[in-house]
C-alpha cells in the first residue's frame, strides 16, 4: 500500500515531558520573568476569578517592594495541576527563555498548547486566555481609552488601581465587582466589556471570539490533557462538541463546489501529488449527486488562487445556500502551496472567501494538505508503506461576512497528512464516503465527527515510522446552524 503525505518536511515527533517542572526550580523560572509576565501567568493560572483580585493585588505589591517569589507563594496554596497550568501559561506569554532553559523544543511546545489560538486551551481557562490575548492586542492608547470607558461605568472605581497599568489586574477587579465574569468551564459574561471593545478599531475578530465565550459556543474548547504520542485520545470523541438541536438544522436546496487541485509544482522539492486525481473525481461525483454545481481549477499560482476566490460572486453568482471550497495541495503550517511553490496562508484564503456578497451563504473550506512536519503516531504492529509528499529532504471593517463559515482540515496544525498514490487521501475519501452513505439524512457536523473518528482509526508506515496516524481538525467554526445537503441522487 503506497501512501504519501502532503508535507514539505518530515521530522520525528517530539514528546513533551510532563515532569519537567517541580517547586525546586520554580523560583528559577521567576528570576527569568519580569513583573508584568508574572502577573500575566498568575492571571492565566487562577481558578476562582471572582474572588482573586485582592490576593493578586497583594502579591503584586509584595513583588514591587521586596521582589518576592510570588508564583511560588501562589502555587503553594494550590497543589493541584499547577505544573500543567504554569507550562501552558509560559507558552501563551511566549517567554522563550524559560522554555529553552526547561529543555523543551519551542516548536513542540507551540504545537502542544497553540498559544495564539483563542478558541483552544488545555489546562488554563479559555475565557481567561482570550482576555489575556486581548490585553496583548491593545496598544497603550487603546488600553487607556478602554479603562476610561469602564471607569465611567464602575463608580466609584478602586482607588488603588488609578495608577496601575496592568490590564489583567483591572479585569480581576471588574470580575470582583461582577462587571464581567469568567466561569470554570471557560464560558463568560462579557457583555459590558464587549460594548466598549466594539468602539475600538481592528478588534473585530477578537470580539467575535469573546462573544463565543459569552454565547457558550465551545466548538474547539479542550481543557484536558492530550498526549501527543497517542492522538487517538481526541477531544473530537466527545459527542457534546458537535451536538446541535434538531431545530438548528437547515436543509439546503442548492450549492456550489469549487475544487482547487494542485498536482504539479514548478519547484522540484515538491513531488507530484499522485492520487490527487482520485480525490478530485470522488469529490466531484459526491457533490454532483447532491445537486451541487461543481467547478475545478488545476495547478493555480498564488495570484490565480486569490483571484479565483475574489471572483466567486462575479463568476458564479451568489444564489446558493452553500459553497464548498475544496483545496488539495502540499501544505505548510497555517497554509497551502501554490503551483510555483509559494505559501498561501489559510487566513488570507478565509479573508478572500468571506466577502460581503457571500455574507448569507454557508461557506465551508475543506483542505487536504499537511499543516506541519510532525508525524502523528499510534501504537500498532501492522505496517503500510508511506512516503513524504513534499521536498525530498523533507483586516475587514465588517465582521458579518465571516459568519456562516467553517474550515475542516485533513490534519491538526503542525502535523502531516496522508495520501495514497492510487486510492487518494484518507481524509477526502472518508469524508466523501460518509456523505454518500448518509445521503441527505446526515448533517454536516455529524459528517465531520464521523470523518474524524474514521480517519483516526487508520494507520500505516512512513519511512522508518511504523505507526503513522492522522487526526482531522475542525479549525474554525462560525456556523449559525448545522445543515443537511440537498436530496441525494443515486444516478448522475
UniProtKB/TrEMBL annotation:
In this chain the Caspase family p10 domain maps to 403-487
Any one GO molecular-function label of the UniProt entry: cysteine-type endopeptidase activity
Its BP terms in the Gene Ontology are:
apoptotic process; protein maturation; proteolysis; regulation of programmed cell death
Alphabetical keyword list: Apoptosis
Pfam assignment, any one = Peptidase_C14
Q: Does the keyword Chloroplast apply?
A: no
Annotated InterPro entries: Caspase-like_dom_sf (IPR029030), Dredd_2nd (IPR056260), Dredd_N (IPR056259), Pept_C14_caspase (IPR011600), Pept_C14_p10 (IPR002138), Pept_C14_p20 (IPR001309), Pept_C14A (IPR015917)
The answer to whether UniProt assigns keyword Lyase to this entry is no
Q: Which Gene3D superfamilies match?
A: 3.40.50.1460
Q: Which SMART domains match?
A: CASc
Q: Which family does the similarity line name?
A: Belongs to the peptidase C14A family.
**What name does the UniProt record give this protein?**
Caspase-8
The organism named in the record is: Tetragonisca angustula
Amino acid at each position: 500500500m503506497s501512501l504519501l503525505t502532503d508535507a514539505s518536511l518530515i521530522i520525528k515527533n517530539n514528546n513533551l515531558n510532563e515532569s519537567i517542572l517541580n517547586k525546586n526550580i520554580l523560583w528559577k523560572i521567576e528570576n527569568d520573568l519580569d513583573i508584568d509576565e508574572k502577573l500575566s501567568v498568575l492571571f492565566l493560572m487562577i481558578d476562582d476569578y471572582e474572588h482573586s483580585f485582592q490576593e493578586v493585588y497583594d502579591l503584586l505589591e509584595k513583588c514591587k517592594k521586596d521582589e518576592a517569589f510570588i508564583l511560588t507563594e501562589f502555587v503553594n496554596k494550590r497543589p493541584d495541576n499547577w505544573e500543567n497550568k504554569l507550562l501552558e501559561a509560559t507558552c501563551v506569554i511566549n517567554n522563550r527563555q524559560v522554555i529553552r532553559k526547561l529543555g523543551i523544543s519551542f516548536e513542540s511546545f507551540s504545537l502542544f498548547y497553540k498559544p495564539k489560538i483563542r478558541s483552544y486551551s488545555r489546562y488554563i481557562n479559555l475565557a481567561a486566555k482570550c482576555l489575556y490575548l486581548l490585553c496583548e492586542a491593545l496598544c497603550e492608547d487603546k488600553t487607556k481609552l478602554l479603562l476610561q470607558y469602564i471607569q465611567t461605568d464602575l463608580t466609584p472605581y478602586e482607588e488603588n488601581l488609578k495608577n496601575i497599568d496592568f490590564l489583567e489586574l483591572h479585569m480581576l477587579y471588574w470580575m470582583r465587582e461582577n462587571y464581567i465574569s469568567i466561569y470554570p468551564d471557560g464560558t463568560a459574561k462579557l457583555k459590558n466589556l464587549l460594548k466598549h471593545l466594539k468602539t475600538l478599531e481592528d478588534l473585530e475578530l477578537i470580539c467575535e471570539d469573546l462573544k463565543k465565550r459569552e454565547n457558550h459556543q465551545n466548538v474547539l474548547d479542550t481543557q484536558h490533557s492530550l498526549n501527543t504520542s497517542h492522538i487517538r485520545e481526541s477531544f473530537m470523541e466527545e459527542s457534546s462538541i458537535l451536538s446541535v438541536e434538531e431545530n438548528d438544522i437547515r436543509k439546503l436546496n442548492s450549492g456550489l463546489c469549487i475544487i482547487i487541485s494542485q498536482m504539479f509544482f514548478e519547484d522540484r522539492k515538491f513531488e507530484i501529488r499522485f492520487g490527487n486525481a482520485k480525490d478530485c473525481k470522488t469529490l466531484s461525483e459526491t457533490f454532483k449527486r447532491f445537486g451541487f454545481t461543481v467547478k475545478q481549477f488545476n495547478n493555480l499560482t498564488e495570484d490565480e488562487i486569490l483571484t479565483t476566490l475574489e471572483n466567486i460572486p462575479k463568476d458564479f453568482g451568489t444564489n446558493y445556500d452553500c459553497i464548498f471550497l475544496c483545496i488539495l495541495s502540499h501544505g505548510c503550517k497555517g497554509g497551502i502551496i501554490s503551483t510555483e511553490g509559494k505559501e498561501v496562508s489559510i487566513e488570507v484564503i478565509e479573508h478572500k472567501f468571506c466577502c460581503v456578497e457571500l455574507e448569507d451563504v454557508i461557506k465551508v473550506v475543506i483542505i487536504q494538505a499537511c499543516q506541519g512536519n510532525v508525524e502523528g503516531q499510534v501504537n500498532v504492529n501492522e505496517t503500510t508503506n508511506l512516503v513524504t509528499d513534499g521536498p525530498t529532504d523533507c483586516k475587514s471593517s465588517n465582521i458579518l461576512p465571516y459568519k456562516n463559515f467553517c474550515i475542516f482540515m485533513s490534519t491538526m496544525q503542525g502535523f502531516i497528512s496522508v495520501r495514497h498514490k492510487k486510492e487518494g487521501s484518507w481524509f477526502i475519501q472518508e469524508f466523501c464516503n460518509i456523505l454518500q452513505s448518509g445521503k441527505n439524512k446526515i448533517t454536516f457536523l455529524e459528517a465531520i465527527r464521523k470523518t474524524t473518528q474514521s480517519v483516526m482509526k487508520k494507520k500505516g508506515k512512513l519511512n522508518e515510522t511504523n505507526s503513522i496516524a492522522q487526526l482531522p481538525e475542525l479549525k474554525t467554526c462560525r456556523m449559525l446552524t448545522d445543515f443537511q445537503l440537498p436530496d441525494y441522487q443515486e444516478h448522475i
